[in-house]
From TrEMBL:
Keyword Lyase: no
Coiled-coil boundaries: none
Name used for this protein in its record: Putative MerR family transcriptional regulator
Alphabetized GO MF terms: cobalamin binding; DNA binding; DNA-binding transcription factor activity; metal ion binding
Lineage, uppermost ranks: Bacteria, Bacillati, Actinomycetota, Actinomycetes, Micrococcales
Domain B12-binding: 167-292
Pfam families per UniProt: B12-binding_2, MerR_1
Length: 293
């Protein structure tokens, strides 16, 4: 049996691609150790080599996978996408093993488009992570360990979207006192991928800094994550501070309804980003506005 790193060396396929092919196309279903690590047998290594050869020969990965699966016995069990065998963030958090956590996150992020990962994996796993902490199954240290790994992955996705952001500046972040960054950073990344210059300002930003940055950057909108009543009170102060500059404020999160003077966004983060982007387009604040009829 071979580990992921050994399979990578034997096939020449990067580990992230190995996991993506497994998730997207179901060409292999490696065994798992008790710790959740993949183990590949010789037949699976051979199949991966053959798929790599077909892709290098000009076939699209989906075509190569389909042609390989057609050659397999009909009783073969095919792996599916994130709906089955979902990478378990809680287990990775409990392990306090950086390698296990990285592999879990890489597996999830490599399985689908970023927006689909946010909807089908990230948000559900964050809820499970919170429930595990509240029930005592995870310690604060374990929860923070997982959150740090996710933050790094989201920051990388945000950076990778920078080449797509030529639109209006939208300030995104958390008001004073708010610290839960994962969902709002995922939103900023979704918005950036749509072409807006979503400038992520992080957590616990003082009210006066929101107003000063909005003026300095000529922001066309501000988006705040609001996850508690205290967050709502802080966000309301931001709305008041921005009133003179006429910069509109949108809010999302569990306590968004408690913010006066701001427009609410849906809980679905990719949909929220899409809706805001459409508003910017329709108001003529986006370079692609001329394409809207």
């Amino acid at each position: 049996m071979y580990t992921v790193s050994q399979a990578e060396g034997l096939t020449g396929i990067p580990s992230t691609t190995l996991r993506a092919w497994e998730r997207r196309y179901g060409i292999i279903a490696p065994r798992r150790t008790e710790g959740g690590y993949r183990l590949y047998d010789a037949a699976q290594i051979a199949m991966l080599r053959e798929m790599a050869a077909r892709v290098q020969g000009g076939m699209r990965p989906a075509q190569a996978a389909a042609s390989l699966m057609d050659q397999q016995p009909p009783t073969r069990t095919r792996a599916t996408s994130l709906d089955a065998g979902t990478p378990d963030l809680v287990a990775a958090a409990a392990s306090l093993d950086p390698t296990a956590l990285r592999e879990t996150i890489d597996e999830a992020f490599g399985a689908e488009r970023f927006e689909d990962v946010v909807t089908t994996w990230l948000l559900p796993q964050l809820r499970l992570l919170g429930e595990a902490w509240q029930s005592g199954r995870l310690t604060v240290a374990q929860e923070h360990f997982a959150s740090a790994g996710l933050m790094a992955a989201l920051a990388a996705a945000y950076r990778n979207a920078s080449g797509q952001s030529r639109g209006p500046t939208v300030l995104v972040g958390l008001p004073a006192g708010a610290r839960h960054q994962l969902a709002i950073l995922a939103f900023a990344t979704c918005l950036r991928r749509l072409g807006s210059n979503a400038l992520y300002l992080g957590a616990d930003l003082p009210t006066e800094d929101w107003a000063m940055t909005a003026r300095g950057q000529r922001a066309r909108a501000v988006v705040l994550g609001v996850y508690s009543p205290a967050d709502a009170a802080s966000a309301t102060l931001v709305v008041k501070a921005l009133a003179d500059s006429a910069v509109p404020v949108w809010v999302g999160g569990a306590s968004a309804a408690g913010v006066r003077g701001a427009a609410p966004l849906p809980d679905d983060l990719p949909e929220a980003a899409h809706q805001l982007n459409q508003v910017l387009l329709l108001r003529g604040l986006h370079p692609r506005a001329s394409q809207v009829t």
